[in-house]
Q: What sequence folds into this?
């Protein structure tokens, strides 16, 4: 009887291994997420509507114009509403992220790790995807997220440049879109949970058009982002300059 149980156990391990997603396959998934999220050979622009909910500060609506040039790793985020913040901008050029304040007419350095506009979104959320470069897979398993079959991939950062040292991402098995992220500190405290509930196929790229960023340290604090007016038309290089931000504010 003991031999039979051992044989059954070994058979079960072999069977599970045959269907389990391997680390190598997981790396392929990360590469596909990067390639299908980034716009190589074309630019990207869109309008973002952000709703930030804070139990102390209430609700704030922000309209942002987003411009991306993934080939040259540049982006511009230009706030149009509310009026009190109109003209504020975030410009990534030459690996430096600048914040522009139209009131003082000055640029100051900021970090990709910082929160965008005091919301639950980070500046890094608007950059191109580089999972395969920035993270290594700790382990991977198959599971379910609601009614979706997913690969659950636990990631550890390869460098100190990333916003979160550890992440767990839930990737739809019938594609390579991320449905959920759990994002952790160095001590593995859960800081934020991100949900990507809607996607749109744009020139063979998958764009998340509805996102929810839930603060896990402050109850009922979250930011939702809806993306509209998506375009892949060429953006003049002059848009990704300090002079452009200053000019549109005059």
A:
């Amino acid at each position: 009887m003991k031999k039979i149980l051992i044989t059954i156990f070994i058979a079960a391990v072999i069977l599970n291994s045959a269907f389990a997603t391997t680390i190598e396959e997981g790396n392929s998934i990360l590469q596909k997420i990067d390639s299908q999220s980034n716009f190589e050979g074309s630019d990207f622009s869109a309008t973002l509507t952000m709703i930030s909910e804070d139990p102390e500060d209430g609700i704030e609506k922000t309209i942002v114009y987003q411009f991306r040039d993934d080939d040259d790793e540049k982006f511009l985020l230009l706030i149009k509403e509310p009026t009190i913040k109109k003209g504020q901008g975030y410009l990534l050029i030459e690996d430096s992220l600048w914040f522009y304040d139209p009131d003082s007419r000055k640029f100051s350095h900021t970090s990709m790790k910082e929160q965008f506009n005091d919301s639950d979104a980070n500046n890094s959320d608007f950059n191109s995807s580089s999972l395969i470069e920035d993270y290594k897979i700790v382990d991977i398993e198959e599971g379910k997220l609601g009614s979706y079959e997913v690969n659950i991939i636990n990631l550890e950062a390869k460098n100190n440049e990333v916003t979160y040292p550890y992440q767990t991402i839930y990737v739809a098995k019938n594609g390579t879109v991320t449905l959920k992220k759990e994002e952790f500190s160095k001590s593995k405290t859960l800081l934020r949970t991100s949900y990507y509930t809607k996607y749109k196929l744009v020139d063979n790229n998958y764009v998340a058009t509805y996102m929810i960023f839930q603060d896990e340290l402050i109850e009922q604090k979250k930011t939702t982002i809806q993306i509209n007016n998506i375009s892949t038309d060429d953006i003049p290089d002059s848009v990704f300059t300090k002079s452009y931000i200053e000019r549109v504010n005059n």
